[in-house]
Amino acid sequence: MKNLLNKFLSKFKPKLPPEEPVERQRVHMTKEMIKTYSKRLLSPYVGVVQVAEVGHARALSIDGENWAIRYAMIDNEETRATPLSDDPRVNYSLVATVEQGRMKTQAIHPILDPEEVKTAIELLYEAITTSDTPFAAGDHYECWLLDAQDNKPLALLHSTADSQEIAQQSVSPVWIAMPHAQLEVIDPQPHDDDVYIPPINDRLQKLIKARAGDKPRAAWFKRTDRTTEDFPPCLIREDWEDEAEQLLCDLYIRRLAPRLLMIDGLPRPVRQRLEQAACDYVFDIERFYRLYPDVVDQSLLNTARVEAQMRRAASP
Length: 316
Hints:
Layout: H1 2-10, E1 35-41, E2 47-54, E3 57-61, E4 67-72, H2 77-80, E5 92-99, E6 102-105, H3 114-130, E7 141-146, E8 153-160, H4 165-168, H5 200-212, E9 218-222, H6 243-260, H7 268-278, H8 282-288, H9 298-314
Antiparallel strand pairs: 1-2, 2-3, 3-4, 4-5, 5-6, 7-8, 7-9
Helix pairs in contact: 5-6, 6-7, 8-9
């Protein structure tokens, strides 16, 4: 009887129109909104990445020729209304690649608006294929490991172009050297083959850890002028009291020189010193040369590039 009553009453319930899906507001993007800058890749420091951004999309390149275009995986309107940032909680989907000027699009994730993504891809493709690299440095916010003795910057841990990331990003006060497998630093000192000696990279990392003290601290700084004396231009302090420790630091810096030359704003004497050291690694100069923002001795680097070409042509 109850079921019959409910069925009877249901005839008198007002019928509501079906809910219309809420249309997601698209991000407005124009060519004038594109932002370009370069950013150091840390930690460890391995080079400088070129960045072009528009809306919630960004194009990234570590050589200025090959690019990956990624789109932020954002599914709520409040976050979508805010500018793109380096929030570590935001994931990115690869939507296109550009190799030697040729673009190849990828499948678009269902959570993303296809038209919005396509617009971003077209704008970024035009930007990166018509702009000169390297872009000007944009990562003016820097997180430095501090020296335990004088509280001055000891080693660069992280950098960003986004001030909001300072609150979002938790940076561990530990400096990491580029691994020996990726950056082989030759030890000029002879050693007994029966005794294991850690790579120079690892030994320098241990020295910097000790210099930071038992309770290492890090601090953020905003720097638009990279020539200030209190900040090591080669990203780690180079003043060591012990001769053996100084040698480890010098060897590491010299081996890293072709990559350090990608840093914008190096003092001219420092850049000249790095150019001379980099000439021992002509293939690295050839690889990274197009991303050098400045050159002191053009003839020296041209000679190194020619040597790289000749050695490659002579190899079987």
